[in-house]
What we know:
Layout (H helix, E strand, L loop, with lengths): L5 E8 L4 H13 L5 E3 L3 E6 L5 H15 L7 E7 H10 L4 E2 L4 E4 L12 E4 L12 H13 L5 E5 L5 H8 L4 E5 L3 H13 L6 E4 L5 H6 L3 E7 L2 H14 E13 L3 H10 L3 E8 L2 E7 L1
Parallel strand pairs: 6-7, 8-9, 8-11, 9-10, 11-12
Antiparallel strand pairs: 1-3, 1-4, 2-3, 5-6, 12-14, 13-14
Amino acid sequence: xxxxxxxxxLSVTAPETxxxxxxxxxxxxxxxxxxxxxxxxxxSTFLSPPSDPDAFAEHATSVLRxxxxxxxxxxxxxxxxxxxxxxxxRRGLQPRKISPRFVVKPSWAxxxxxxxxIIVEIDPQMAFGTGxxxxxxxxxxxxxxxxxxxxxxxxxxxxxxxxxxxxAMLGASEVVAVEFDPDANINARENIERGGVEAIVSLxxxxxxxxxxxxxxQFDVILANILSGVxxxxxxxxxxxxxxxGRLIVSGILRTEADDVVRDATAAGLRLLxxxxxxxxxxxxxxx
Length: 288
C-alpha cells in the first residue's frame, strides 16, 4: 500500500525520565505509529489519517495514560506531508557503533569499516529494532560476547530481524526468527534480503508460545528482546529448548523488573552469567 499524501502526527509532551519516554514510544507504536521522532520535549509518531482526528487523539490519550500509569501531560495532533516525514525520519537514523564488532546503520548512511567490524544494515519501518533503543544495543553487546560460529539461534519477537541478521553475520548455522506482527515481518524480510542472509534466517509469522518453541527443536542461543511480562512465562520453555551449553539472552526489561526475571529464571533452571545495563533498561545472559 503506498503511503498517504500526508501523515497524521500525534505528539506527546514527554518527561525527561528515560524509562517513561521509552514507554510512551512503545505506546505510540502500539497505536499504529510508523516511527517515533524524538523532538526533545515531545515524542511524535506518524499514522495513516483517521476519519476523526480529535476522537483518535482522545482515544490515544487514554491509551497512553494507561500505558504509562498516567505519566504524560499534553497530547496534540497535526498534519505533515509525506516527503517531510521521510526527511525527518532519515535524519534521525545514523550509524551506531554498538559493540567491539557490531555497527548498525541504515542503507542511506556510509561507514568505513575497520578490520573485524560487522556492519548490520537495517532500514526500519517502525520505532525499534534499529540500534536506536537501549534494549537492542544490550542484546547486541551480549550476543557479541557469547556467540560461537556454527550456533543455531532462535529470535523470539524478532521485529525488524536485526538480532537474527546479526547472529547470521556472526556465523550462525541457522536462525529461526519468530514474529507475530505481519507489518514487522514485511520490513524484516526486506532487511534479511538486504543483509544477504536469507539462506540462514527463516521467518515464522506465529505467536511464540511453549508449544511452538518445543516444536522448533534445540538451540545454542535464544534471543528474546520482549517485555518482562511476556518473557517470564516463557522461561521454562526456553530452558528446555537450550542445548546443554546453550545461552539465553533476554532484554526489553526495566531495571526495576530484573530481580523478578532472575528469580523466575533460576526457578526454571537457568543461571545468570552476565548483565548489561543502559539507562533504565536491563539485559541479561543466562546459561543452563
